[in-house]
């Protein structure tokens, strides 16, 4: 019941403060919109150094998906069982896991993802290079699966802060999540 009175008082105080601030009403609309958009994404402290986790597993990869969020782009690698070990790091050139041959990408930086798990026989990665066109992720690159390890890549706009972590579920499965921020 007291909330409408509080909201009215807060609005009146804000209006009074703006009236007393010189030039507040003269701020360009585009600058205000930019400040609001930038303030919705907090400064991240993830860094761009390698992220690793050493675990042994008999799990298999059965799906890879990507998506966009307001502050970062995300890749999720679904595993059939408990978490696998991984290494996620920026590299100069993405290379095939078995061949070692370079894979050409269009982004400003390349993120290599090595998962200590093979690919499920039912999983088909599709094209070697998938154009994504997200804010940060430019391409998803399939680098192969060899001797119980699988390698993927993400071509990014630039070398930006990233994080990698494991989540349990759904069911008895798990997920490796890689987020790359849109800005420092």
TrEMBL record:
Keyword Signal: yes
Any one Pfam family match given in the protein's UniProt record, by short name: AMIN-like
Ranges where the AMIN-like domain occurs: 61-182
Signal peptide (UniProt feature, chain positions): 1-26
Keywords carried by this UniProt record: Signal
Protein name: AMIN-like domain-containing protein
Organism from which the protein derives: Glutamicibacter uratoxydans (Arthrobacter uratoxydans)
């Amino acid at each position: 019941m007291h909330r409408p009175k509080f909201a009215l008082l807060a609005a009146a105080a804000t209006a009074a403060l703006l009236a007393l601030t010189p030039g507040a009403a003269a701020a360009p609309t585009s600058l205000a919109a930019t400040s609001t958009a930038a303030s919705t994404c907090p400064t991240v402290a993830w860094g761009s150094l390698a992220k690793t986790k050493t675990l042994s597993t008999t799990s298999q990869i059965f799906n890879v998906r990507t998506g966009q969020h307001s502050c970062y782009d995300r890749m999720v690698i679904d595993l059939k069982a408990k978490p696998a070990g991984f290494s996620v790091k920026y590299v100069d050139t993405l290379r095939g896991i078995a061949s070692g041959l370079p894979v050409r990408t269009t982004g400003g930086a390349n993120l290599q993802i090595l998962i200590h798990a093979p690919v499920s026989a039912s999983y088909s990665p599709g094209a070697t290079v998938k154009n994504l066109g997200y804010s940060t992720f430019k391409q998803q690159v399939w680098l192969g699966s060899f001797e119980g390890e699988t390698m993927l890549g993400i071509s990014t706009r630039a070398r930006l802060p990233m994080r990698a972590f494991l989540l349990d579920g759904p069911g008895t499965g798990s997920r490796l999540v890689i987020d790359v921020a849109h800005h420092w």
